[in-house]
Amino acid sequence: MKLELQGISKAFGSFYANQDIDLTVEDGQIHCLLGENGAGKSTLMNVLYGLYEPTAGHILVDGKPVVFRGPGDAMAAGVGMVHQHFMLVPVFTVAENVALGAEATRGAGLLDLEVTRQRIREISAKYGFHVDPDALVEDLPVGVQQRVEIIKALVRDAKVLILDEPTAVLTPQETDELLDIMRQLKAAGTSIVFISHKLREVKAVSDVITVIRRGRVVGEAPPSAPPADLAAMMVGRPVSLTMDKAAAQPGESTFEVEDLTVTAPNGTKAVDGLSFRIARGEILAVAGVQGNGQTELTEAILGLQPHVSGSVRLEGRELLGRSVKEILRSGVGFVPEDRTVDGLVGSLSVAENLVLDLYDREPYARGLAMRPAEVRANAARRVEEFDIRTPSPEAAAGTLSGGNQQKVVMARELSRPLKLFIASQPTRGVDVGSIEFLHRRIVAERDGGTPVLIVSTELDEVHALADRIAVLYKGRLVGIVPAGTPREVLGLMMAGVTPDRAEAAATAREDALEDNGSDYDGGAL
C-alpha cells in the first residue's frame, strides 16, 4: 500500500507543530522520520492515524484521497500505529488486549476469544514473536509488550505500520530483536513508518530517511549518509557524536558502598553484596542488561527500597535508614530511570517541577508560603540555561516532549550544590542534540569535584561518560574495569563472564578471525 501526505500542516492556536509536510511511503518500504524530540514527528503521525485533524493538506492511500476522522478510519484503511507509551490494559491477557475494539463474537453476542487466540498464535509463529495469548500483560517484559502492540495492528490487517520511537524503552538486545522483526514485516509486504532519533538504528534498518526539524521537512537522505550529516540536519548545526572530555582528576573517595544487599518481596536478592567507591571528580558508570539490579541499587541509595542491609556512606555519613527527603537534602542529586513516573509531576508546571525538592526552602518559600515570583525567575533561568523547549514555564510538564521533560529533571537536580550525583538512564528517549548537551553537563559536574554514578543500558553512553565501568549481572558485581574496555568484553561481562575470561575470549576471537575468517565459534568460553 502506498501512502502519501501532501502539504500537511497542524496548528495549535498560532503555533504550527507541522507545516507544509510532504511524505511518501512506498509499498513494502521502511521509511524513517528522523528528528529531535519536539520536532513534530509524533504530531504528524497522530494526524495520519486520525487522532488529530490536519489544519491543511491531504492524505492519499494508493493515490486516492482519504479523510481519517479517528483511529477507526485509519485502521479500516490499513494504517496501524504502535505508540511510544503502550496502549495496553495491564490486568488483561494478551488476547483480551488484542480483542479490544475488534471483538469476535459467537452465538447470542458472546465474546469468542478463541478466534483472537488463534490469530495471535498464527502471527506469533510467522514472525517468531513467542507471545502467549493467555499471559497477563503486566507480567510481560517491555519488549514483549511491544510485540503485543504490533500484533494488535496486524490482527486488524495493517498494511502500513507506524512505530513511534519504538526503541525508547527497550534494552539493546530487545532493540536488535525489534529491528529483525521490522525486516520480517517488510519482507512480508508491510510498509513501516519508523519514527526515531537514534542514528545507529535508523541507518541499520531504513530504506529512506526524511528529516524533520521544528515542524518542517528539511531534507531526505539514504541510510548510507554519514551520521554526522544526519545529526546536523536534525539539529540545524554541526553536532559532535563523540564526547571529548579531559581525563578525570579523582580526589578523595567520598561515596562508599559496602556489602549492599536488597531483598525483593519474593525473597530473592535483587542486589547481592555490592561494594564500590567513587571519588570526587570521577564518573563510575554501571553497565548491564536492564533488570540485573540497577534499579534496586539506585533506589536503595536514595532510601526507596524497604529491605536493605549493608552500608552506604557519603562523606562519612551513613545514608541507609534515612528518609528520601533527608538524603536529597544531604546533597544527593537523583535522576530516576522513568522520568514520567518518578521524575516529574506531569500536571504541575515546568516552573513548579524545577523546584520540587526545594519548594519549601529559601528563596522559593518564606515560612509556610511559596514565593511565586522567585519560582518564575528560577524557571526563566533554567529554561534558557538548559534549552528547555516549552511554550511557557507555566505549561504543564507532561505536555513537553520526552527530551525536554528529561532536561527539566536534569536542570532541577544539577542546579543546586551536590555532594553526589546519580543519574539512571540519563538520556533514555532523548535526541542526539540533547544527548550532547546533557553529557556535557554531567561531565561538568564531575569536573566540579562531584562523585557521579551513572546507570545506563547504552554501551555508547557508558563509553562516552565513564572513568571506570562497573558491570552488574543478576544483582552481583561482575567487575570494575577501565573506561576504555572494548564493547565485546563488556558485552561478555554483561552475560556474567568474569573480566579475565571475557578479555581472554575477546582476544581469542580476534586472533581466530585473523587466522580463519569468521569460522570461530567462541569456544574459549
From TrEMBL:
SMART domains: AAA. The keyword ATP-binding applies. One of its GO terms (molecular function) is ATP binding. This is ABC transporter ATP-binding protein. Keywords: ATP-binding, Nucleotide-binding. The keyword ATP-binding applies. Pfam families: ABC_tran. Residues 505-525 are annotated as: Disordered. It comes from the Bacteria. PROSITE patterns: ABC_TRANSPORTER_1, ABC_TRANSPORTER_2. Residues 3-239, 255-502 form the ABC transporter domain.
